[in-house]
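Dear colleague,

Thank you for sharing your sequence with our group. We've completed the structure prediction you requested, and as agreed, I am returning the results in plain text so they can be pasted directly into your records. Please verify that the sequence below matches your submission; if there's any discrepancy, let me know and we will rerun it promptly.
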Amino acid sequence: MRQRWRAVLVRVLRWAAWAAAYALGLAALVLAGAWVWWQKEPEARGTEVNALWARHQWVGEPHGDGEYRALARLLKESRITDVYFHAGPFEADGTVPPAKYRNARDLIEAMRRHAPDVRSHAYLGQIRVVDGKGVIDLDDPAVRERVLRTDATFLDLGFDGIHYDFEPIYPDDEAFMTLMDRTRELTRARGRLLSVALEQPALLDAAQPVYKALIPRTGPVHYPPRPTARFLRRVADRADQVAIMTYDVHLPTQSLTGWHFARHTRATLELIGDRTTVFIGVPTYRTPLEWAETLPVALRGVRRGVDELDRPPKRPYGVGVYADWTTRPDEWARYRDVWPPAGEAGKGA
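Please find the predicted structure tokens below.
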């Protein structure tokens, strides 16, 4: 009997060793293939239309004229056309206390003086209530109405648009779509813009029902709130700009991280690039895998994704830098070196 169990154990260990060797070999092939793919220098250049997420202090605290001039100079040098100034978050009832944006009017006046070609958006959002967890309940019509009144307040202050960042947003969120419809009516009536930040799209739309069946939306773990192709097209038909939060990759090598940015750039621009302006979010904050997920890697990946398009999208596109409060001067210099528009390559920062 002991010999029989020993023989069974030997067979199990042998199969486990073969399985481990197969998995390691497959991983090595993937890593090698990604490395080879990554070596090609991108041909696509940067663009003249780019966005920046900016810290709350710009609307919440006073600043001197020198600070505004420095901001304007940075935006011009970096080809930033749209700034999402954090102005929220929303309270649970859909309002934002005036004390939180007491400097907003001074900011807008300074932007008009020093950066008249840059659009200033009120960046507003909150944790969306999903299955009883969260802060703001967009399913409540009264809350949505107060959100719209708050939006109107910021437009009255002079903001060029409203930028939403509600999380999580799942592709079956009809209350969010209703809010988008109503906000579009408001912004278009004022001649302003509506933009929205969304999670990176699903790799496979078919995975959504699998996630939903296996991972509940309650408790500490939620299934990923990834936009499906249909949902992303619906949002694009309502928004003037869609910013994809492509960061937080958590892949171990630069080549895999670059492939991630390339894949999402190509897929997103092919899907909605003819419908709306698209910004591919690129990170400047420190990550646990900071040797792999860096600003230069992200920008190179975006350029590789543009290279893979059959044709340019009909609408403008660029990158969205996240964020002004985490970007060091040397990173801005590198950004200007890696992301110059066509005709600007080689001129330096």
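Summary note from our side: Strands lie at 51-54, 82-86, 119-127, 161-167, 193-199, 241-245, 277-283, 317-322.

Kind regards,
the structure core
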